[in-house]
Design a protein that fits this description.
mainly alpha; globular
Length: 180
């Protein structure tokens, strides 16, 4: 699966698989979910080691504030339902308009970078550590690649589900590691 996503990333072309059987779509979905989580968590772990080693303080993460202010049900609802629907319509929905355009690759890369960039607001001290921001948002930017791939290949609904699954799994991880 990673090989297919990498090939798509190097040369993004809008080639959908609208008549693919459900089991094939499920295979694409699960492969993207697994690789996205593995790469995203790996990058986040690497970035946390760098920020610790070089005493860089990006500040509190937005998830910390959410855990202090809202119920777990509400946070889960925001992370696993609301955010995936809104963000996918904003960042991956418009890719359809570039389907037959020679500018599709620009639209794809732009959606990945904007998706990563919007997540810079998750860091309290983001404006003070702008020089490291590409690393801070690298997990979300990589996720944008997987979401763009799955959106083009099997549809926006699957991209929403991938986003929701990813956020839901991370929410469970936050629950396990948080001091509640």
């Amino acid at each position: 699966m990673l090989k297919h996503v990498w090939k798509f990333f190097k040369n993004p072309v809008y080639q959908a698989y609208p008549n693919a059987p459900f089991h094939y779509k499920k295979q694409i979905f699960l492969g993207c979910l697994g690789w996205n989580l593995l790469l995203g968590v790996g990058i986040a772990f690497f970035v946390s080691i760098l920020t610790w080693a070089f005493d860089i303080d990006p500040g509190k993460h937005a998830s910390d504030d959410l855990l202090e202010k809202y119920s777990l049900f509400f946070i889960f609802f925001l992370m696993a339902i609301v955010a995936p629907i809104i963000e996918e319509f904003i960042f991956r929905g418009p890719l359809l308009f570039f389907k037959q355009s020679r500018f599709f690759s620009i639209a794809f890369y732009t959606s990945c970078l904007l998706f990563g960039g919007i997540h810079l607001s998750n860091f309290e001290n983001a404006s003070e550590v702008l020089w490291i921001s590409p690393l801070l948002i690298a997990p979300q930017t990589v996720m944008g690649v997987f979401l763009g791939y799955i959106r083009v290949r099997i549809g926006l609904t699957w991209a929403i589900l991938l986003h929701a699954g990813h956020n839901g799994i991370l929410f469970l991880f936050i629950l396990i590691t948080a001091d509640l």
